[in-house]
Every structure is written in structure tokens, then in C-alpha cells.
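hey team, just a heads up i'm posting the complex here instead of the shared drive bc the drive is being weird again. everything in one block, sequence lines first with there labels, then the predicted structure for the whole assembly after. its two chains so it's a bit long, scroll down
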Amino acid sequence: MKPETHKTRTLLAGLLTATALTGTAQAQEVNFWYHFDNADNPMSSLVEKFEAENPGITVNAENVPWNSYYDQLYTSIVAGTGPDAALVKLNAQPRLMEMGALEPLDAWLEGWEGTSEIQDDLLKLTAASDGKQYYLPVQYVILYLYYRTDMFQELGLTPPTTCDEFRDAAKALTRDTDGDGQTDVYGFGFRGGKGGHDHWASLTLSREGVGFGPGELTSEAGVAGTQFVLDLFQKDKVFPPSAPNDGFKEIIGAFQGGNTAMTIHHIGSSAGMVEALGDKVSAVPVPECGGDHWTSFGDESTAVFADAQDKEAAWKWIAFLSSPGNNTEFNKATGQLPVTKTDSAGWDVHEKRFVDATVASLPFAQLLPNTSETADFANTVWPVAMQRALIGEITAAEMNAEIEALYND
Amino acid sequence: MSATTAPPVPLSRRVLPLVMLSPAVLVTLAIVFLPMVQAVWMSLHDYVLFRPKNFDWVGLKNFTAALQDPVFWTSLRHTVLWIAITVPAQMLLGLATALLLNQEFPWRGLARALVIIPWALPSVVIALMWVWIYDSNYGVLNDLLLRLNVIESSIPWLANPDTALYAIILTLTWQGFPFFAVMILAGLQSIPKSYYEAASIDGASQFRQFWHITLPGLAGVLMTATLLRVIWVANSIDVIFVMTGGGPGYSTYTLPLYAFVKARTGLDYGYGSALAVSFTILLLGFVILYLRRAGRNIG
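-- predicted structure starts here --
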């Protein structure tokens, strides 16, 4: 931003603050952004409860569509029209820090009785590279493999534990069930569009010595991982033909509609799955591929922004969301798992089999690298490279080289 | 004697038109020209949104980078296809529709009103609707073709790089043809009936009448409508963005979409602006042609 604009903005902000101060000193506002998939979310009841407990603070909670959530967030922060607090993922942290957009929470955390309630690992996991704490965890999930119990039973299959078993099962499950010569069930619903890097990662990064370090993705094992994904689509044809463009809605819809027999997602979609399929759906950890397991740890925290109009009020609101009781209400809405010790102990929102699959996946759950490149990886580099590889425009080696270049050049 | 020189126009009369025009001019300056100048300015800088403190002058670096960027050329090729197929297709369909609607038949008023629907619907609604039509599992298009035995298995129209761009072109053709139909219909009604009467007395066939009376009579309308559509279609990204987001891979990238993705998702406003400015320059020829025509009509 040009210095003049910055100066003008600071001046304007100063004037506005002064007006606000001389006007009504007690009118505190918190603009909060979040993203929920389900339309009937109880955010308003949480807001009402908070406002009753904290007279004088008004919370404007805005549900921002997920697909453009971070585009909106980054641009609004630079334009000076961003929220005061928001739901944020760990892979956005380096970029937000680079922008100087985050307010450290350390001083507040020290004086807050709820700090000891947050599960220890989660605070460590969300700590920033400079040692400060900018994020307050609010929910988490771990990705696992959904499968159709009825289809597995019909074919005498057991849930796959390795990549080879996974491939065999997917091939067997891909079939024409009504005899019209058309394949109507596909073995696996692969997410080739934005957000699908978790699927690819489970089948690729699990391999011995494969990660985002120099030469790791371009190694033989790294390329073999991506090639495995491509073969499933191009040779075995176990993904629906629309896989290159498929996103969250498509993979969940296809699984619930009976068009796919397996897919990878987290406990957040389990309520919808059970509603559509009853006990015909269950979950297991993702298969072990090439010697190890890799699954994605899906974190979600809240943060207060450095430009927040009233940081104290914003902190009170995010602390409220991560407090026992409220955290349960919040996670009932998102269908994810609570972060406080009390709420975790009394958690009975999900069916046991999905909680079990999550817990069993915990030992090998990983995060993407905590660097600024990860935002580009997830938003642009991976989706485009994966789609091009799936449609045969580039090879597995070329795709991995693009990701390798992003992280290591 | 004294009437040879016109009385001087009072100052207030001379200033009044300018005063009346100024609000519109000021608004246009603020919301059109200022962002345009800003885009040009940004295109000459290294400006990545998540590093707001760095705003370094780089001259034409972003433009030379674009010329060496294979995605730029892919996007340009798609943009040319996009315009070269969509606009003529819309025009032909619009012409056929207008000729039909110009005939006498019962409920003609209703038919004329209904034909506007694709044009009146929001682009996002149209895009979502066509995504379902093309869907490889549930889509009505695949179902129809399968039942007619035209294809043997479902085609993922939007996930197949060979069909994705053309599938979106068909959608946009459907959306835009009513514009041509309405413009041409208005043009048709301005052609005097006496021309046709005279021609038929002289024994001219239907086709001859169309070729020598209708088409020349519509030339002005067709030219203006086509120029306008070229500019609109070239810049239209909403339908592509909703239907495929540019994918699979770069299969449905057009230049404006590439600029948008670079700036909005990649947050690289410097390079994104350079792409947008380059495309504006490429499109300028059509804009000038249109402005000259518009100016001539007013004159």
C-alpha cells in the first residue's frame, strides 16, 4: 500500500476512534467471520448468550462462504475492512503473520481460567513460529476413510488397511449394479478440485521419506505416490469421471447418493452420512501406503486481528467460544470435535464408530508445513497441477516437481 | 443592422450544461477511471497483497513475464475461441429467433416475453443450472443422449478438457442469444413493409427478399450488437468461474479469468493487473470501433 493511503487511513481511523470515544463509550462491537456448511447453525443463540453475559458488547457474526473465505479475508484485511476476529486455519497463520494482521493472545491467555481447559497438545500445535500464541483452538477433526458397509459385505470385502487392499477393494466396488452397461458405483470419490490435497496427501505423503523437503516429492517414492493416484483414475477407472472438478459438495453428494463406495472426509460430515445412509456407512483410518500412514489434522482456531476496533471485546468473544459448554454448542453446529477437556469428556454428539475412527487416526495425523507457501499450495498450485495430471496434461513427476519448486525454490 | 451579431450567450447559460453533467462525469471518474489508472499503476509494480509493505516499481517486468508465461498464451487462445464461437452463435440463434418472432402467430406477445428469460436470469443461477444439466451422474444431457443411444457412457462434460470449454460456450450462447433476438426484432420492425411488397411484385423469392432487404436493413443493428457482445462476452468470467473455476487444469482459463484468479486467489495484484491491462489493450480495437459507431449515430 502506498504510504499516503496508509497515512490517510490511519488519520481516518484515528478520527473515527476519537468520534467513537467521545460518543458512546460503552458501545463495543465485535465483527466476527466464520464458515459453517450447514445452513441452520445456532450461532445466533451463542451470540445471544454472550451478549446477555457481557452487556454492552454487540457481536455481528457473519457466515462467509467457504470457497472464497480466505480470498475475502486477506483482501478485506488489506483494504482495512476486515473483521475484528475470525475463524482461521493453521495453514493461513504464516501469511497472516507476514501481513502483520494478528494480535498476540499470550497476555490474555495467561490471565484466563479457561486456558488450562484447552487440551495441551492443541495449544502447542497452534503456537506460531515466533513463539507467540496468536490462535485459540476452537474445534478439530481428523480425516478418515468412509466406506459403505453394505457394499463391502455384499462383495465379501473388509475395509482396506493398505494401499494395495484399497486399490483391490476400489476395483471390486466399481461396477454396473443395474445391468444397463453403465458403471453406476465407483470405488472411491476422489476430490480433484480445491481442498482435495488431503486425499492426495494420504496416498502420497505416507510413503517412506516423502514430504515437502528438498528432493522428497521428486524422489522415486514421491512420484510413485502421485502415480498411484493417477492410475486409480486413468487405468483402474475407480473414480467418477467428474473427479478432476469435484469438490466437497460433489464427493459428499456422490457418497450419500450411492455413486461411490468410499471417500475421505472427517467426522463433520458424519451426521449427514448417517441421515442419508443409516448404518450402511462406517469409517476406518485411511490406508497405510508405502510403509506409513498420513492423514490430515483439520484444525480450526479463532484469532483477534491487530486492527480490531475493540480487541478486549474480541478476545472476550473468542474466549467465550472456547469455554466449556459453549464449545459443545459450537461444535454441535459444525459437527467437529470440542477442544476443552470438560466438553471432550462429556461428548456424545457423534456416533461412536466415527469417534473411534478419529481417535485411531490421531497418532499419525499431520499438518501441512507451517509456511507461507502452504496457502498457495492449497489454493492454486495443488488443484491446478492435480487436475492437469488427472486429465493427462502433465505426468506425476511433473506435478510433484511443481509442488517441490513451490516449497524449495 | 444591429441584428448581424448574435447576442452573447450569458455565462450562466454556457456553464449550466457543464454543471448538469458534472455529477455523472465525477461519478464515472471515481468509479471507472480511477480504478483503471490504479490498475495500470499496480501493473508496473511488484504488489503481492500479503506483503502490503512491499510495493516496488518494476517497470514492464510483469508484462514481459506474461509474454513468457505459457498460461497467458493458453488463456489467450481460449479467449479467442470463446469470443469467436460464442458471439456468432448467439447472433445466428438470435437472428433465427427474431425472424420467427416477427411472424404473425397466436400468443406472439407471450413468446416474445418468454424468450427474454435466459437473458434476465442472473449468471450464477444459469451457471449452477447448467452444471446440473452437464452432471455426469445425474445430468439430464447425459441421460438424454444415453436414451437416444448417441453415446455409450456418460461424458463428464465439464471435467473433460476436450469438452469443458465448449460446454461453457454453449451455456453462454443460450444466455446471450435473447439480446440479439430483441435487438434484431426491433431492427426488423423498422424496415418498411413497402420494400417487401415492391420486391414481391418484381418476383423476388423469399430468400432474395431476405438477402437484399432484410439483411442490409439490419446491418447497423447487427454491427452495433455484435461489437457490444464481443466486449461483454470477452470480459464475462462469472459463468466460467462458477461452472469450472477455470479447470480442469487450465482447460477453461480465459485471460480475464486468469487475471482474476491471479489477483484474487493468488493475491498477486501486480501480475494480475498486468494481465488485465494487456487484455484491455487487445480489446481496445473493438472498443474504439464501437465508440466511433456510437459517436456517428449520435452525430
